[in-house]
């Protein structure tokens, strides 16, 4: 990841990590809801990967390679509505009901009414959506649930910090390389390999027109500027609904469950009691930021692989790929 001794901040294609990218049409023919998905693997259980707020399916890229080298499985990572390359008519409806329906619709569109056994794996908001999808039994072939760094108690406490975080980050970047460099140096993503593939899903280029030219002092008209694909601050009215009640929903899901945390201080009261009662597997990962599966993809893959093997959802890969 270094060119002549310096870190290489150039973007890397999704093709290095996934087998294919598809745009899946969902809903009636006259509605144009198109969800972007990335797939890998051809046999074994299906891991449905749901990213956190502001991220995209590409935040699972490095994890996908890591899990595929450990166990036989298939991966489907999707861009949630309003995120990445997904285009829906109501891109500002971020209710858990709508977003969990999206997940079920995409899986049905890809696999029909009887998809393979699947494990829902979600990070942050995606974790909350995974819990809602599982608890409402929207996908009957779901056999397992993995929530990553989503805990109702700490999430509710952190809601007021999110707006400050969003206000504090740059509004635009001169180039994709600059954005990748910022994401690593600011600590948003603490893993250069992951940042190089995943930032492409977070920002996109806009040609600078007269309207923008005034606000983008450093750019001339006609030059392109990179901006965030989604204005997360506009989803604020949904934040409370994403997380409120998720701890008890998670505990009530009658499925094998795994909770991965970036710190033990994340646990709230309900989950602490549930953990003591042995209602789910839990693992605290080595120090990392909130983008757990990007910062520590190998550790997350190890934990998920152990979960899959323990419950006999999957088999270990015989040959260890280099």
From TrEMBL:
Residues 47-303 form the AB hydrolase-1 domain. Keywords: Hydrolase, Serine esterase. GO terms for molecular function: protein methylesterase activity. Its EC number is 3.1.1.-. It catalyses: [phosphatase 2A protein]-C-terminal L-leucine methyl ester + H2O = [phosphatase 2A protein]-C-terminal L-leucine + methanol + H(+). Pfam families: Abhydrolase_6 (PF12697). Binds PPP2CA and PPP2CB. Demethylates proteins that have been reversibly carboxymethylated. Demethylates PPP2CB (in vitro) and PPP2CA. Binding to PPP2CA displaces the manganese ion and inactivates the enzyme. Belongs to the AB hydrolase superfamily. This is Protein phosphatase methylesterase 1. It comes from Dicentrarchus labrax. The gene is LOC127359595.
């Amino acid at each position: 990841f270094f060119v002549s001794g310096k870190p290489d901040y150039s973007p890397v294609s999704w093709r290095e990590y996934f087998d294919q990218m598809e745009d899946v049409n969902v809903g009636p023919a006259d509605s144009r809801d198109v969800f972007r998905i990335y797939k890998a693997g051809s046999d074994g259980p299906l891991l449905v990967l749901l990213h956190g707020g502001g991220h995209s399916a590409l935040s699972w890229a490095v994890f996908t390679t890591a899990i595929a080298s450990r166990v036989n499985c298939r991966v489907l990572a999707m861009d949630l509505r309003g995120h990445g390359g997904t285009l829906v008519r109501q891109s500002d409806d971020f209710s858990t009901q709508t977003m969990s329906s999206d997940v079920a619709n995409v899986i049905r569109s890809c696999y029909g009414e009887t998809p393979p056994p699947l494990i829902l794996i979600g990070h942050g908001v995606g974790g909350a959506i995974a819990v809602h999808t599982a608890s409402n039994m929207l996908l009957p072939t779901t056999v397992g649930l993995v929530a990553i760094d989503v805990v109702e108690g700490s999430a509710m406490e952190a809601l007021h910090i999110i707006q400050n975080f969003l206000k504090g980050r740059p509004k635009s970047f001169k180039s994709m390389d600059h954005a990748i460099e910022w994401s690593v140096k600011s600590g948003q993503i603490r893993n250069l390999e992951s940042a190089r593939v995943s930032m492409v899903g977070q920002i996109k280029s806009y040609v600078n027109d007269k309207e923008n030219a005034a606000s983008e002092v450093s750019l001339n008209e006609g030059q392109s500027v990179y901006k965030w694909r989604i204005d997360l601050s506009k989803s604020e009215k949904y934040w409370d609904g994403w997380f409120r009640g998720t701890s008890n929903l998670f505990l009530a899901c009658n499925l094998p469950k795994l909770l991965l945390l970036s710190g033990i201080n994340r646990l709230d009261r309900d989950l602490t009691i549930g953990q003591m009662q042995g209602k789910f597997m839990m693992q605290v990962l080595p120090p990392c930021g909130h983008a757990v599966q990007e910062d520590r993809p190998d550790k997350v893959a190890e934990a998920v692989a152990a979960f899959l093997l323990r419950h006999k959802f999957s088999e270990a890969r015989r040959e260890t790929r280099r």
